[in-house]
Amino acid sequence: MLDLRGRPVLFIGGGCETEAKVRSLLEVGAAVTLISPHPHPGLEPLLEDGKGPRFRWLRRGYRRGDLEGFQLCFAHPRERWLHPLIAQEARERGVWLNTVDDPAHCDFILPAVHRQGALIIAVSTSGVAPALGVRIRQELAKKYGPEYKEFLQILHAYRTIVKETFPHDFQARKAAWYRMMDSPALELVARGETEEAREVLLRALHQSGLEGVSS
């Protein structure tokens, strides 16, 4: 859940997941520096986007001192014996480190993530069995489909409406949100009946009472 837009992130790569993980970092807007002496054909087309370099690639192995100037680092070299050396430098410099498939040297681990627009569901097994996290994510993906992305796009506009309707009453705003969530609007969105869903949400917003509020 970190906002990495424009943030300098170091990726010490070479391992089999280097391309996928660097792509993921670029997708969230991180300013990536990749250190890897190995070929990564899938990353070559991403080096420039017509406006200049998208990320920096130092085509060599890790050297002590490479973590200077970074707050976040991912280590996925082919030579796993480098992990303790990278971890030592990270500790000395106060850099948050993720060593891929090596929880003992990690400051943080990456969950399996399912995304539908603004909806983000993360699953973690605390590094014990990442494959189980992936399977659970796949099951969640079946339940939380594209309709949630569209539903959240609609709800985004209602944040202002709810605040303007109940400007000074937090409990009333809370009750309104739960009424809207408990309405059939999501089912209507899933059926492609978007305008009907908007109308249902408006009616739920203006209903009286506190029904549907969770403690």
From TrEMBL:
Q: What is its EC number?
A: 1.3.1.76
- Going by the entry's taxonomy, the superkingdom of the source organism is recorded as Bacteria
Q: Which UniProt keywords apply?
A: NAD, Oxidoreductase, Porphyrin biosynthesis
Q: Which GO terms describe its molecular function?
A: ferrochelatase activity; precorrin-2 dehydrogenase activity
- Which residue range or ranges hold the Siroheme synthase central domain? 117-142
Q: What class of enzyme is it?
A: oxidoreductase
Q: Which reaction does it catalyse?
A: precorrin-2 + NAD(+) = sirohydrochlorin + NADH + 2 H(+)
Q: Which pathway does this polypeptide act in? A: Porphyrin-containing compound metabolism; siroheme biosynthesis; sirohydrochlorin from precorrin-2: step 1/1
- What InterPro entries does this protein's entry cite? Met8-like, NAD(P)-bd_dom_sf, SirC_C, Sirohaem_synthase_central, Sirohaem_synthase_dimer_dom, Sirohaem_synthase_N
- What does the record list as GO biological process? siroheme biosynthetic process
SUPFAM superfamilies, per the entry: NAD(P)-binding Rossmann-fold domains, Siroheme synthase middle domains-like
Q: Where is the Sirohaem synthase dimerisation domain?
A: 148-205
Q: Which NCBIfam families match?
A: cysG_Nterm (TIGR01470)
The molecule here is called precorrin-2 dehydrogenase
